[in-house]
Amino acid sequence: MSKILVIDPEKCTGCRLCEQVCSVKHERVVNPYRARIKVVKWEMEGKILPVVCQQCEDAPCAAACPGHAIARNPETGALEVNYTLCIGCRTCMNVCPFGAMGFDWVENRVIKCDLCGGDPQCARFCETGAILYVDKSELSSLKQKKGAESLMDLMTKVTAAITQAG
Asked: Could you read off the pLDDT of 140-156 as tens digits, one per residue?
């Protein structure tokens, strides 16, 4: 059973608690710049999105790493950086399609989500439920439910508009 983090941007308030608990878990300091999850905000549009490693099946970061320092943990399914093999070239950062690879300027090394060893603190402490840790097999049904809810809302609006016009 392989699990992944799923983000619901509609539930995210931008509190950045996920960044705080991540940095405490990994670095023992409250420092969002050292977190493996980043909350991206578009202030003018009012949009917020926590960005975290998607643990890609065919991970570009692992494929591009010249030191073969990124490998999948067989127990958690997370792609992890082996710092004894990492040469610090940051190629992984350049090829990540989600911008989920980070750089810790204090330790001078790349960082990425390792799913906290199977107990992701960002999901555990997210008060709004915007970050979920789910089995990959549940992902399809979650997407279907979300899509059905959106379609139901749209159809309700369309029906109301037709009824009002008629």
From this structure: 566 566 666 766 777 78
Taking CA 35 as the corner, what is the angle to CA 30 and CA 38, rounded to the nearest 5 degrees? Answer: 120
Query: Does the CA dihedral 22-30-19-100 come out positive or negative?
Result: negative
- Decide if 49 contacts 7 (C-beta within 8 A): yes
C-beta of residue 43 within 8 angstroms of C-beta of residue 119 = no
Spatial distance between the Cα atoms of 104 and 24, rounded to a whole number of angstroms = 14
The CATH number that domain 3-136 falls under is 3.30.70.20
Q: Where are the domains of the chain?
A: 3-136
d(CA 17, CA 45): 21
Q: Give dist(CA 140, CA 46) in Å, integer.
A: 28
Residues 109 and 57: their CA atoms lie apart, in Å, by: 23
- Percentage of the chain modeled with pLDDT above 90: 78
**Residue range 26-44, pLDDT digits in tens:** 999 999 999 999 999 999 9
